[in-house]
């Protein structure tokens, strides 16, 4: 499995895609996948998942520098890049109204990509995605604690329920303070409560910079993977990200880290010191 940070395919990334064509901004994705396979000593990657930071819609209803919309053709681009799974529980997925969220789901489903996560609830019909590999089931739960205040009690209850249904549970959560390099104590306590409730891994995003990580009660917690594709050019930190290569072994999660640089004004490439 591969997990990435925030993916933003509108604004100046869309302008650059129009100029560059091809697989931009995923030109270097084959190298990332190959390195993940090498690090995991695996011949295949079953799941590639990221946080899709905005809606895929045919038309634009609302405008503004912080209001995103992605062209429908990016659904096919994401599929061809290798993405199987995309989280939608974030503060931009409603940028083109709730209808835009539904349109995004439809476009992704149309190309065979699973989506999960609702930005305003932990317990919606689309909050989860579950995969079965032989006798092992892997669940994703999408949570958002940015523009909507997360109901932590509801989230914990949902985690407890899912823990009874799947062997491995990954909680994907949009949270924290933008550009802050260390997760604050409130976020840390919430992460620990999720693990105590049954989460096997916490996959965080939203701060747009790579934050600290830890192992708590045997569960990896990555507070923020930073950006994967984004047009935030004003700092070195916002042009870096972290990709995680995961292997499920004896129903435990083994993690290998792949740092990336956002080169060519926004596309991820394996970091070389």
Protein described:
The structure is a single chain. A hairpin with a 2-residue loop joins strand 12 and strand 13 (252-263). 26% of the residues lie in helices and 30% in strands. It contains six helices and 14 strands. The mean pLDDT is 97. It has a single domain (2-270), classed as Metallo-dependent phosphatases (Purple Acid Phosphatase, chain A, domain 2, 4-Layer Sandwich). By secondary structure, the protein is of the alpha/beta class. The longest helix has 14 residues, at 97-110. Helix 5 (152-163) runs parallel beside helix 6 (185-197). It is globular, with a radius of gyration of 17 Å. The strands form two sheets. Strands 1, 2, 3, 4, 11, 12, 13 and 14 form an eight-stranded mixed beta sheet that branches. The protein has a six-stranded mixed beta sheet with strand order 5-6-7-8-10-9, with helices on one face.
Layout: helices, strands, pairs:
Layout: E1 2-7, H1 11-20, H2 29-40, E2 48-52, H3 73-81, E3 85-87, H4 97-110, E4 114-116, E5 128-133, E6 136-144, H5 152-163, E7 168-174, H6 185-197, E8 201-205, E9 213-216, E10 219-222, E11 227-229, E12 240-249, E13 252-263, E14 267-270
Parallel strand pairs: 1-2, 1-11, 2-3, 3-4, 6-7, 7-8, 8-10
Antiparallel strand pairs: 1-12, 5-6, 9-10, 12-13, 13-14
Give the strand tally.
14
Listing every helix as H and every strand as E from the N terminus to the C terminus, the arrangement reads EHHEHEHEEEHEHEEEEEEE
Structurally, how many domains make up the residues? 1
> What share of residues are in beta strands?
25-35%
What share of the residues lie within helices?
A: 25-40%
Annotated CATH topology:
Purple Acid Phosphatase, chain A, domain 2
- Low-confidence parts: none
Number of helices: 6
Radius of gyration of CA atoms, rounded to a whole number:
17 Å
CATH class annotation: Alpha Beta
Please give the alpha-carbon distance between the first and last residues.
Answer: 25 Å
CATH architectural name: 4-Layer Sandwich
| Tertiary shape | globular
What's the CATH H-level superfamily name? Answer: Metallo-dependent phosphatases
Largest sheet: 8 strands, mixed
Structural category is alpha/beta
């Amino acid at each position: 499995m591969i997990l990435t940070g925030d993916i933003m395919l509108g604004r100046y990334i869309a302008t650059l895609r129009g100029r560059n064509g091809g697989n931009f901004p995923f030109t270097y994705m084959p190298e990332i996948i190959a390195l993940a396979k090498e690090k995991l000593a695996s011949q295949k990657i079953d799941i590639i998942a990221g946080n899709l930071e905005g809606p895929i819609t045919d038309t634009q209803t609302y405008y503004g520098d912080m209001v995103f919309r992605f062209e429908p053709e990016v659904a096919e681009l994401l599929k061809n890049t290798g993405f199987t799974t995309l989280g939608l529980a974030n503060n931009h997925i409603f940028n083109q109204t709730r209808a835009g969220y539904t349109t995004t789901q439809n476009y992704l489903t149309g190309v065979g990509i699973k989506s999960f996560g609702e930005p305003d609830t932990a317990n919606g019909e689309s909050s989860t995605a579950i995969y079965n590999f032989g006798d092992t089931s892997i669940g994703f739960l999408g949570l958002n604690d940015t523009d909507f205040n997360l109901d932590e009690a509801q989230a914990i209850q949902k985690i407890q329920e899912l823990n009874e249904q799947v062997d491995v549970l990954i909680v994907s959560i949009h949270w924290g303070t933008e550009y802050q390099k260390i997760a604050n104590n409130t976020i840390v306590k919430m992460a620990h409560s999720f693990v105590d409730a049954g989460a096997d891994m916490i996959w965080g995003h939203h701060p747009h910079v790579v934050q600290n990580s830890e192992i708590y009660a045997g569960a990896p917690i990555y507070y923020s993977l930073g950006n994967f594709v984004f047009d935030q050019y004003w700092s070195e930190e916002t042009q870096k990200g972290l990709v995680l290569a995961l292997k499920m072994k004896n129903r435990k999660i083994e993690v290998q880290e792949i740092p990336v640089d956002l080169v060519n004004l926004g596309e991820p490439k394996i970091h070389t010191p």
